[in-house]
Amino acid sequence: MRIGFGYDSHRLVEGRPLVLGGVAIPHNRGLSGHSDADALLHAIADAVIGAIGDGDIGRHFPDTDAAYKNISSLDLLRHIKNIADKKGYKIHNVDTTIVLEKPKLAGYVQDMALNIAKVLDVPITCINVKAKTNEGMGFVGRLEGAACFAVCTVEEK
Ligand code: MG
Q1: What is the pLDDT of residues 48-57, one digit of tens each?
Q2: In angstroms, what is the span from residue 48 Cα to ligand 1's centroid?
Q3: CA 150 to ligand 1 centroid distance, Å
Q4: What's the gap in Å between 38 CA and the centre of ligand 1?
């Protein structure tokens, strides 16, 4: 059994969709970035990469590569899952926390978990998505962005 940790943050800006866990969430601002800026899936991807000891997401998907512009991060996560498969690791479970001041995400976390479970090919009971605010503190509290944390365990096949 091995464990990996991932963190990601993206800036909130006008004129972008807000996508977290592969779910489009109605809001007046969205996360800016080269891909769809899905900070939750990026944190999970880094947790999986960490668990299998294979660097970081930036090494696998350089943001200078036009191929990844506006790409769905579900595709990025699928790619990382395939690398884990090839290296002989089976993903066991993933636990995550999204830190975002607004909007409230409680109504969306189950759909996010379903998307993640599908891509990682694990039972839904092995995926946990938590959402919280930052109590008005720091960059999250100032509505400047979102931060996401994830841990992932894998086992050798
Ligand atoms: Mg990112």
Answers
A1: 999 999 999 9
A2: 14
A3: 13
A4: 7
Q: Is the pTM of this model over 0.85?
A: yes
Distance 21 CA to ligand 1 centre (A): 12
Closest CA to 72 of 148, 17, 29, 126: 17
99 Cα–ligand 1 center, Å: 14
Enumerate domains of the chain plus CATH numbers: 2-156 (3.30.1330.50)
Question: Over the stretch 62-93, which tens digit does the pLDDT of each residue have?
Answer: 888 888 877 899 999 999 999 999 999 999 99
